[in-house]
Write a structure and sequence with these properties.
The chain is of the alpha+beta class. It contains 6 helices and 23 strands.
Length: 365
């Protein structure tokens, strides 16, 4: 199946996504996106000539916006803003992580050394136990949480006091600092070790891209030694092989663990755990990383060998460049997808991709 231009419809549901209230027509424009490590959003522009009564009954927070493309559900979220003009209404929504953005973390935790905690478990706890389960799961989200597991997931040491964060702030911080990714597709929320190559989509040739990719080598991202420090004079250390040190010299990468600053001398086992984290930070930094850059918001052209379900932030695919002075191929991951349809222009599908980690973990066969 090759990629083709699609047609969209927009519907309003009660909170929980089960009871449909009605379709929003006539829709003159719609846009929606999917993001890696962020909350996505959407916007539908509706004329007032047909369903003015329904438009007048819309309410933020208590209603959801659901978008279909060629009868396939592609986006769902909470209506967060309504704008009424004389001849049109604009409906804005954010995806189903939005409740966690407005849920105070009411239970603190302490996973300081030696109680380091599995990051995926903690992210799941923040959504399931702290955000959606309380009050009887009115958003109907517990069955839509999908931690993707494997045997060697990242761990972290961290403290959080009750009422210190919103649940999403803490959830997002784990992805930013502790080697995980997350995304929302439709109503489903996925979170996983960023090194886990768990979703693979077909290779993409440059003929299906509106802009030609380029090859870039990043000297400023290079490192041959990595340190994780507690800012009290102690650090865990990881180094590249001796041959790499002789070729490139000593280039340092320093990460300070400000949330693990216990007074006194750390235990050897604690420093060893920091060294393991330093080793993860060093992965992919020697030799200086090389990547294929697909320009941001490149349009996916009709005929591309992807379907809409393939446009999954975090999905891995191979890209090859053979027509430049330097030839290169690599695994990349989709980072963001942006879809827009309006009359008379029709549909455009833009996407942004990034180089995949050099340290790869595959699911057991």
């Amino acid at each position: 199946m090759t990629f083709t231009c699609g047609r969209h419809r927009a519907f309003v549901y009660e909170r929980g996504g089960v009871n449909r209230i009605g379709e929003l027509t006539p829709m003159s424009a719609v846009r929606w996106n999917r993001k890696r490590d962020d909350i996505s959003d959407s916007e539908a522009t509706i004329g007032t000539s047909e369903c003015c009564e329904l438009l007048g009954d819309l309410r933020t927070v208590k209603h959801e916006l659901h978008i279909e493309r060629d009868d396939e559900h592609v986006w769902q979220g909470v209506i967060t803003r309504l704008e009424y003009d004389w001849n049109e209404v604009r409906v804005y929504a954010e995806d189903m992580l939005w409740p966690s953005k407005r849920t105070a973390l009411k239970a603190g935790y302490d996973q300081s050394w030696p109680n380091s905690y599995n990051v995926i478990d903690r992210m799941h706890w923040l959504l399931a136990n702290q955000t959606y389960a309380p009050h009887g799961d009115p958003w109907r989200m517990l069955s839509h949480l999908h931690p993707v597991r494997h045997s060697d997931e990242p761990k972290a040491t961290k403290k959080a006091a009750a009422y210190q964060y919103y649940a999403w702030d803490d959830f997002d911080k784990y992805a930013e600092d502790n080697g995980t990714d997350y995304t929302v597709v439709g109503r489903d929320i996925y979170y996983w070790d960023l090194n886990l190559r768990w979703k693979i989509i077909p290779p993409l040739d440059e003929e299906y891209l509106s802009q030609f990719p380029r090859i870039v080598e990043y000297g400023n991202s290079a490192a041959t030694q990595a340190f994780v420090s507690n800012t009290e004079g102690y650090a865990g250390v990881a180094s590249a092989p001796e041959a790499t040190l002789l070729e490139y010299g000593y280039i340092d990468y320093l990460k300070t663990n400000l949330e693990d600053t216990d007074e006194g001398v750390p235990l050897d086992a604690e420093i060893a755990e920091w060294a393991k984290t330093a080793g993860r930070n060093l992965n992919g930094r020697y030799p200086p990383p090389v990547g294929i850059v697909i320009p941001a918001n490149t349009t996916l052209l009709p005929g591309a060998p992807w379907s809409m379900s393939d446009l999954f932030p975090g999905a891995w695919f191979i890209v090859r460049v053979d027509r430049l002075c330097r030839k290169f191929s690599e695994w990349q991951r989709i980072s963001e997808v942006a879809v827009e349809e309006s009359a008379p222009a029709g549909e455009t599908v833009n996407f942004t991709a990034i180089s995949a980690p050099s340290s790869i973990v595959d699911l057991p066969v």
